[in-house]
Design goal:
Layout: E1 5-9, H1 14-23, E2 29-34, H2 38-46, E3 54-59, H3 65-79, E4 82-87, H4 103-131, E5 134-139, H5 152-172, E6 177-184, H6 190-199, H7 202-211, H8 220-231, E7 242-245
Parallel strand pairs: 1-2, 1-4, 2-3, 4-5, 5-6, 6-7
Helix pairs in contact: 1-8, 3-4, 4-5
Length: 251
């Protein structure tokens, strides 16, 4: 098992729940972060393949710093330490072109995603520093390497999250803290898949599938494997990196 509990922000979503299931096979303590539905967090806990993994459902409203600080403190009190902080939270984001995006839309998505992530980082770092270990794994987007038109609202905040991850790696490595990112391609799980399925026809989906070198869309499990690797001791000398998991979509 890996040192310290794993905390998954956005643990009830399509990607987040897949990450929780995968981490439960190597971590013996897992905090499932949710925004509003404790019932969903409980359902994720019940679905874990490792029945011996101790779980804690934690309210984690990214717009509320006090909620975040309370959730992290409760997790440390319950498990003794957090060793891995996974940020897998996402929102249903429209896909207008840049010329159509209002200032209000920019502010909303940056507040929810980028500022929310900074709150998680600020609340977690003191614990990581004090214990002398810890790592962040953040789910970002392959759009920062292969940009699809209309994806600015989603990819711009995630680009900021990547930059912050590299800053953490550079500045906090002396304290035994690592930070890495996973950049998914087109995934058939989570809010993004639900939104894109409602927006595009099956013909467009098939065209996109054919663009992928491996000729299939990714799964939540594909992303979860990458997260688990970067969070594990196997990646103990890897920090500040983005692992693209897109089946060759960006080639």
């Amino acid at each position: 098992m890996t040192k310290g509990a794993a905390f998954v922000v956005g643990g009830t979503g399509g990607l987040g729940s897949a990450i929780c299931r995968r981490l439960s096979t190597e971590w013996d303590q897992l905090a499932i972060g949710y925004r509003s539905s404790r019932e969903k967090a409980s359902a994720v806990a019940a679905s874990l393949p490792n029945g011996s993994c101790e779980t804690l459902s934690v309210a984690c409203d990214l717009s509320d710093r006090a909620s975040i600080e309370t959730g992290i403190r409760e997790t440390v009190e319950q498990f003794g330490a957090i060793g891995t902080m996974v940020f897998a939270s996402g929102v249903d984001i429209a896909q207008p072109f840049v010329s159509q995006i209002s200032e209000e839309q920019w502010r909303e998505v940056i507040e929810i995603e980028l500022v929310g992530f900074t709150r998680i980082v600020s609340a977690t770092l003191p614990y990581f520093r004090a214990q002398g270990f810890g790592n962040f794994v953040t789910v970002v987007s392959v759009a920062n390497y292969c940009f699809p038109p209309g994806d600015a609202l989603s990819s711009v905040p995630k680009a900021g999250m990547e930059a912050l991850g590299r800053a953490i790696a550079k500045e906090e490595g002396r304290y035994g803290i690592r930070a890495n990112m996973v950049a998914p391609g087109i995934i058939d799980a989570g809010l993004g898949a639900e939104f894109l399925t409602s927006l595009y026809s099956p013909e467009i989906w098939e065209t996109q599938r054919k663009r992928i070198a491996l000729q299939r869309f990714g799964s939540g499990e594909d992303i979860a494997e990458a997260v688990a690797f970067l969070a594990s001791a196997k990646a103990q000398y890897i920090t500040g990196q983005t692992l693209i998991v897109d089946g060759g979509f960006s080639l």
